[in-house]
Amino acid sequence: MSVIVSIIIPSYNYGFVIGETLENLLAQNFHEWEALVVDDGSLDNTEEVVAKFAARDSRIQYVRQANSGVSVARNRGFRMSKGQYIQFLDADDLLSADKLAIQVDFLERHPDVDIAYTDHLYFETDKPDIYYPDYEMNHNNWLPKIDARGFEAVNTLIYSNIAVVSSPVLRRAIVEKVNGFPELSNYTEDWEFWFNCAISGARYTFIGDDNARTLIRIHARNTSRNIQVMQAGELEFRKRIVEAVGKSSILTQDEKQKLLDRNNASTQKLYKYMMYHANLLSPGQMKLLSGLVDRKTFISYYFKSLNYKRKALFKKGR
C-alpha cells in the first residue's frame, strides 16, 4: 500500500493566496498525497480558485461548509481523509519542497514517533524572500526542540505552544485518539490540540533539517487580533489543563503536582499582566476579566492594579 499524506487546508476568504499554496503543493518532491480544502463559508473567490486546481489534479478536493470555525473545518477535512499521515496546513502557508518527503521517511523509520515536527520561518507577503524565525520579526526562535513523550512533552506544552500548525506531520492514529481539534477553544486551538496529543501519550520528535520547513505568511489578515481576547482564551485553556492533568493515566502523582504547580504559576502571571495593563474604566474589559476568575481573585487583582497604575503615574510625574 502506498504511503498517503492527507493535507487538510481550512480556508475562510483566502482566495487571494490559496492558489499560491496549492501551487506549492504541486511542487512537492513527495507525490503520494491528497489535499482537502475545506471552505469555511468564504464570501470571496476561494471556490473558483480551488476548482481550477482540482480540475488540473485529482489529488485536490474541495468541500464547502457553513462558517463554523477553523477547528470544525480541520475536523471535517480529517474525517474525509484517508491518509496514514496527516499534514494540517493553513491556507496561506507554504512548505519547503522536501518537507513531506523528509518527514514521511523519518516516521517510516521510527514507528514509535507519533508526531514529527520541523522548524518554521515567517515572511511578509510583499517580501517573500526575507525570512524571520518569529512572528514579531525580532530574530528570536521560540520553537522548543524536543524528542520526548509523557511528562517532558506535557511539561513543555504547559509552558508554551510547541509548533505552528503547519509544521508537524502526524500519524492518523493520534488524531483519532484525541478526537481532532477542540472546537470550543478560543484562539488556542492549535496549542490545545498539541497538548491533548501529549497528555494522551504522543511522542514528539523535532527534525532539524533545513530542507524541511514551513513558511508562515505575515499579512493584515493574521495580525489584526485582539490580544486581550487571545489571552483570555489562554486562561480558559489553562483551566482545562488542570482537568486533563488530573485525569491523566500516563503521569505519576508527583509529576501531576509539578505540572499543576507550573500551570498555576503561569495562570497567575498571565492574569496579573492582563489586569495591570487593562483599562480599569472600561466596562467591557472589566466584564471580560471578572468572568475569568472568582470574585475574590478579581477584586484582589483590581486593587493591586489600581496601586500599580498609581505608582506608575507618580513616577511619570516626578
What does this structure look like?
The N and C termini lie far apart (75 Å). Helix 1 (18-26) packs parallel to helix 2 (46-56), helix 5 (151-159) runs parallel beside helix 9 and helix 8 (227-247) runs antiparallel to helix 9. The protein has helices at 18-26, 46-56, 70-80, 99-109, 151-159, 172-177, 189-199, 227-247, 253-276, 283-290, 295-317, and strands at residues 5-11, 33-40, 60-65, 85-88, 94-95, 115-124, 127-132, 147-148, 169-171, 204-207, 213-218. Strands 1, 2, 3, 4, 5, 6, 7, 8, 9, 10 and 11 form an 11-stranded mixed sheet that branches. It has 11 helices and 11 strands. It has 318 residues and is of the alpha/beta class. The model has no long low-confidence stretch (mean pLDDT 92). A hairpin with a 2-residue loop joins strand 6 and strand 7. It folds into 2 domains: 5-222, Spore Coat Polysaccharide Biosynthesis Protein SpsA, Chain A (Alpha-Beta Complex); 227-317, no CATH class. This is Glycosyl transferase family 2. Keywords: Transferase. InterPro entries: Glyco_trans_2-like (IPR001173), Glycosyltransf_2 (IPR050834), Nucleotide-diphossugar_trans (IPR029044). One of its GO terms (molecular function) is transferase activity. It holds the Pfam family Glycos_transf_2.
